[in-house]
Design goal:
With 295 residues, the chain is an all-beta fold. Helices cover 0% and strands 49% of the residues.
């Protein structure tokens, strides 16, 4: 499976790595830029030398033969520690200390881990969960604290899941994104209490990506039915820019019984057995045009 390294300034192809053992789910550079970690579909994490493209290490992050891929990998940003964290689809969170040749499995309860982020000082790993909460563990893998994301009144917001997050430059807050009761949710929350200091509900559906400006003043989040990208003020959540295309994501599709029409829908609501993805529109192949709403 090829991995391509591209120069972000010019778009030029810098390096091609052909040693990945399976489809790649996540990539992350070491803080010195000499190593690239790849989380793979077969549950392994592979480490590549960025100069030679050679594979220098491979570890089994998920339970062998479980069929669970390694969905996310994150190098610790502190150059003092050569530590890599991995997140598997089998709920496993591992810390790999390559300097000491030690491995630590992170143990906690309170929801399935869905995303992770290191603090800027490298001392804490934050984990977002399928229950809409945040779990903090130390560099040693020990539980520090955990809480649900809450509103200004301290009451849990009832978020259904967190999909990505990043510590703010001061490490006292995190930018988090996911899905709430009524659609996509993004915000800045306290790393001590989980209370939201700023919230954005302008996304039309689940929010899957977030990044913070270098000065911590702005946050960019992306997701929703139209794959919209919002740039917003980290202090109050005010949306400053909205970048969006003309289409919407298709969540459902199906053939008519007579085979003459195709139906599709844009909505994606609910969770688990209550998830609803209705068919909303039809295209008639025999007339080559839009038809009546599906019955």
């Amino acid at each position: 499976v090829p991995i391509y390294i591209i120069n972000p300034d010019t778009g030029d192809h810098v390096l091609r790595i052909d040693a990945a053992s399976a489809a790649v789910y996540g990539l992350h550079f070491s803080n010195d830029g000499t190593r690239l970690a790849a989380g793979c579909e077969d549950g392994t994490v592979q480490i590549f030398d960025v100069t030679s493209a050679a594979s220098v290490r491979q570890v089994q992050a998920s339970v062998p033969h479980s069929g669970a891929p390694s969905v996310e990998v994150r190098y610790n940003p502190n150059p003092r520690w050569k530590v890599l964290a991995s997140l598997g689809a089998d709920k496993s969170v591992m810390m790999w200390d390559f300097a000491r040749n030690a491995t630590q499995k992170v143990q906690f309860s309170g929801g399935t881990p869905t995303c992770m982020a290191w603090s800027n000082d490298g001392g804490t790993l934050a984990l977002g969960t399928s229950a809409g909460g945040v779990v903090f563990v130390s560099i040693k893998g020990e539980l520090v604290r955990q809480f649900p994301v809450a509103g200004a009144d301290g009451k849990p917001l009832g978020l259904r899941a967190l999909f990505q997050m990043q510590f703010m430059p001061n490490d006292r807050e995190l930018a988090v994104v996911g899905v709430g009761k009524d659609g996509g949710w993004a915000g800045v929350v306290s790393a001590d209490s989980g209370t939201a200091a700023a919230a954005v509900t302008a996304h039309t559906n689940s929010v899957s990506a977030v990044d913070v400006s270098a000065d911590g003043g702005r946050v960019v989040s992306s997701g929703g039915n139209q794959h919209e990208t919002l740039v917003w003020d980290a202090a109050d959540g005010k949306v400053l820019h909205r970048l969006v295309g003309t289409g919407s994501g298709v969540w459902a599709i199906g053939w008519a019984k007579d085979g003459k029409s195709i139906a599709w829908g844009y909505k994606n609501k609910g969770e688990g057995e209550g998830k609803v993805r209705p068919l909303e529109f039809t295209f008639r192949l025999d007339e080559f045009g839009l038809g009546n709403p599906p019955d």
